[in-house]
Design goal:
Layout lengths: L9 E4 L4 H13 L5 E6 L4 H4 L11 H15 L4 E6 L1 E3 L2 E2 L1 H10 L4 E5 L13 H10 L4 E4 L5 H11 L3 E3 L10 H9 L10 H19 L1 H16 L6 H7 L5 H7 L55
Parallel strand pairs: 1-2, 2-3, 3-6, 6-7, 7-8
Antiparallel strand pairs: 4-5
Length: 311
């Protein structure tokens, strides 16, 4: 759902069956719903990969090609981009092949999360892979991984030659990162980080907007983790910290933090604190026999039953 004044309207589409991708893209284009389509082949969560979806798809370049081709052909004038990871693990790197498939099939650009699916969000992103992909394809390459501050984006572009960046966990509890990115890309120094008062006002605004969208009960249970990200590093009592995980309403959130010191400066130690999933290295779950025939371009049964949660 978008507003008329919102532009451009980008949508990320998940899928593993070319037929259903075709039908979905046709509908989106015919109804004038999007200005840009991105396809996610980076989701590493077991419930997705064990069915042959998400980050497992690039293991089978024929299947990947059929999916991308179906999207691009039906997108008409709408630019299509795809996002993927380095591979599923250290033994199976697929990013260069995925990039070439995207280029061959007419994608406008590609995005690389410079970790494997086995890494999830653990450790450091391998920016060297972004540089390798940039050398391998002629279409624009966007780098993803470890953009915590605006200067990280400039450093990634200088070190890898990539054409732009994708921000994921870096904006969790830090939505002003996009303001800072706009500043540095325009040659300006980013503003100083906000004090706690501004952080709290932003957090409360975010919570209310989420409630307007989902309804207060559902929204605020989801917002508990956002509240934790917004307040990381600031001085708060242990009772307040624990209370963030029990909030049910916006009023609960506001009352819980009513007596906190709003004058606190943004703590430097919190600038690069990891947010989001950090569960370490995993063994990537794949369907039985999935690696036996990587030339098979048949979608795995049930791969589209769960849409995953990014990658």
């Amino acid at each position: 759902m978008t507003c008329e004044e919102e532009s451009p309207r980008s949508l990320q589409l998940y899928g593993s069956d070319p037929y259903y991708i075709s039908e979905a893209v046709k509908r989106l284009v015919n109804e004038g719903r999007i200005d840009h389509l991105d396809m996610n082949f980076g989701c590493p969560v077991p419930k997705v990969t064990r069915k042959g979806g998400g980050a497992a798809i690039p293991l089978k370049p024929g299947l990947l090609r059929n999916i991308v081709q179906a999207a691009v052909r039906n997108a008409e004038r709408i630019p299509v981009t795809i996002k993927f990871r380095i591979g599923i693990n250290a033994d199976h790197h697929t990013f260069l092949t995925a990039g070439r498939v995207a280029e061959d099939e007419g994608c406008a650009a590609v995005g690389l999360h410079a970790r494997t699916a086995a890494q999830l969000y653990n450790g450091h992103a391998d920016w060297n892979a972004i540089a390798d992909l940039k050398q391998a394809v002629r279409i624009p390459v966007f780098g993803n991984g470890d953009i915590w501050e605006s200067q990280d984006a400039l450093r990634m572009m200088r070190e890898t030659g990539c054409d732009g960046v994708i921000v994921g966990r870096g904006c969790l509890g830090r939505p002003w990162l996009f303001r800072d990115l706009a500043d540095v890309f325009n040659g300006k120094e980013p503003a100083n980080p906000p004090k706690f008062a501004e952080v709290l006002d932003t957090m409360f605004f975010h919570a209310r907007k989420l409630c307007d969208w989902f309804g207060e009960r559902t929204a605020m249970r989801s917002f508990r983790r956002h509240a934790s990200w917004y307040t990381k590093g600031f001085r708060m009592t242990s009772e307040m910290r624990a209370g963030l995980m029990r909030i049910e309403t916006v009023q609960d959130l506001e009352e819980l933090l009513r007596d906190v010191d709003r004058s606190q400066a943004f703590p430097p130690s919190a600038m690069r604190v990891i947010r989001g999933k950090t569960t370490g290295i995993q063994k990537v779950c794949l369907p039985a026999g999935f690696l036996d025939n990587l030339n098979d371009d048949t979608p795995s049964p049930g791969a589209d039953d769960d849409t995953g949660d990014g990658g």
